[in-house]
Amino acid sequence: MGSFVKDFRDFINQGNVVDMAVGVIIGGAFGKIVSSLVTDVIMPLIGAVTGGISFSDIKYELTPAVMENGKVIQEANTLNIGMFIDSIINFLIIALCIFTVIRLLQKSKEKFIHEEAPAEEAPAPSAEDLLTEIRDLLKAGEEDKQP
């Protein structure tokens, strides 16, 4: 049991797990911000353009509500097409925002890497060049030994 706890502690302390947890938390908060952007800013603008129609109100009633003495006994069974459209628009805007953030990060990373890149080193000599150099050194050593 002790090794299980130790292995679990080591797993939790790895940087990747902590990074992933931070990413999930920030992603959740980012999702709420974008959802608010869609619900509170974009959808009212779309509603104003479409004459006050709210997508969330678009429904197709499959079976009507059952009423008795003015009280609803059973709710209407509806296809909430407008809520589906809202969800699609929400997804597309979130995907666009994430794409934009990731693209900006990649561009800034590329710019940073290009600015900080060390000067290129001379290419390594080929095997043939090395062998030629060794041969020449051996010949020079033999010539030095001759009287």
From TrEMBL:
<keyword id="KW-0472">Membrane</keyword>
<keyword id="KW-0812">Transmembrane</keyword>
<dbReference type="InterPro" id="IPR001185">
    <property type="entry name" value="MS_channel"/>
</dbReference>
<keyword id="KW-0813">Transport</keyword>
<dbReference type="GO" id="GO:0008381">
    <property type="term" value="F:mechanosensitive monoatomic ion channel activity"/>
</dbReference>
<dbReference type="Pfam" id="PF01741">
    <property type="entry name" value="MscL"/>
</dbReference>
<comment type="subunit">
    <text>Homopentamer.</text>
</comment>
<comment type="function">
    <text>Channel that opens in response to stretch forces in the membrane lipid bilayer. May participate in the regulation of osmotic pressure changes within the cell.</text>
</comment>
<keyword id="KW-1133">Transmembrane helix</keyword>
<dbReference type="GO" id="GO:0005886">
    <property type="term" value="C:plasma membrane"/>
</dbReference>
<dbReference type="InterPro" id="IPR037673">
    <property type="entry name" value="MSC/AndL"/>
</dbReference>
<feature type="transmembrane region" description="Helical">
    <location>
        <begin position="81"/>
        <end position="105"/>
    </location>
</feature>
<protein>
    <recommendedName>
        <fullName>Large-conductance mechanosensitive channel</fullName>
    </recommendedName>
</protein>
<comment type="similarity">
    <text>Belongs to the MscL family.</text>
</comment>
<dbReference type="InterPro" id="IPR036019">
    <property type="entry name" value="MscL_channel"/>
</dbReference>
<keyword id="KW-0406">Ion transport</keyword>
<keyword id="KW-0407">Ion channel</keyword>
<keyword id="KW-1003">Cell membrane</keyword>
